[in-house]
Amino acid sequence: MAVQLLTPEGMFAPVPYHHVSIGTGARQVHVAGQIARDATGNPVATGDLAGQVAHALRSTARGLAGAGATFADVVRLRFFVTNWSPDKYDAFVAGIDSVVDELGIPRPLPPLSAIGVDYLFEPDVLVEVEAYAVLD
After folding, report:
1. pTM, 2 dp
2. Would strands 27-34 and 3-6 be described as parallel, antiparallel, or unpaired?
């Protein structure tokens, strides 16, 4: 496997993700920001952060698969969440938890960042997900 995930001793814990990933492959896969839209561009899970996180991760999985990758090859995830506040954490994590088994997302998760932003693509978009993977 081209990706090794780890959390060195002394780094902040517990967190639901690894702090470090090492990619040893030559091919890089970058999946552009995925949002809660169906294949024809219609909004999905409007007003539901957990539902939008789940849908965006499913779309991310499709993008990875198109390049011959899976979440096992991901070295980094980046989430952008509109109007972030700590009270959104449970819904955010629930969205991830709802698809980890379905999509084969490793636990703990690959290194990730959740970045609060004022707004995204369109007003109904609550979250956007980017993925970076390495293949042999």
Report:
1. 0.93
2. unpaired
Each residue's pLDDT tens digit, 72-111: 999 999 999 999 999 999 999 999 999 999 999 999 999 9
Nearest to 126 by CA among 16, 63, 60, 33: 33
CA distances from 69 to 115, 118, 126, 134 (A): 25, 31, 26, 8
Tell me how far apart the alpha carbons of residues 35 and 63 are, in angstroms, rounded to a whole number: 12
Q: Which amino acid is at 24?
A: T
Residue 106: Cβ within 10 Å count: 15
